[in-house]
Specification:
3-stranded antiparallel sheet; two-stranded antiparallel sheet; Hypothetical Cytosolic Protein, Chain: A; alpha+beta; 84 residues
């Protein structure tokens, strides 16, 4: 079980998307859930991403400040996931 950084609900790992901070300090979505780095989990909804942005839940979980352009890229990737 993992906790969503947006809504704070506990769900299984397969129901969530992992946001990863790589060794190179990049913030990316980890579709496989197996890449190396520090991870945070978010439900598969744009609402939870927006809540995590507003409360800075992702920044706390990843222990790094996240630039606005990274949030914009994450939003675009979430929108493509929502359409699938």
């Amino acid at each position: 079980m993992r906790q969503c950084t947006g809504c704070r609900e506990m769900k299984s790992k397969k129901e969530m998307i992992r946001v990863l901070r790589t060794v190179e300090e990049e913030i990316v979505l980890d579709a496989t859930g197996k890449k190396n780095g520090r991870g945070a989990y978010i439900c598969r909804s744009l609402d939870c991403l927006e809540k995590a942005m507003k409360t800075k839940g992702l920044e706390r979980s990843l222990k790094q400040a996240i630039p606005q352009e990274v949030y914009e890229n994450l939003k675009k990737e979430f929108e493509t996931i929502d359409q699938q």
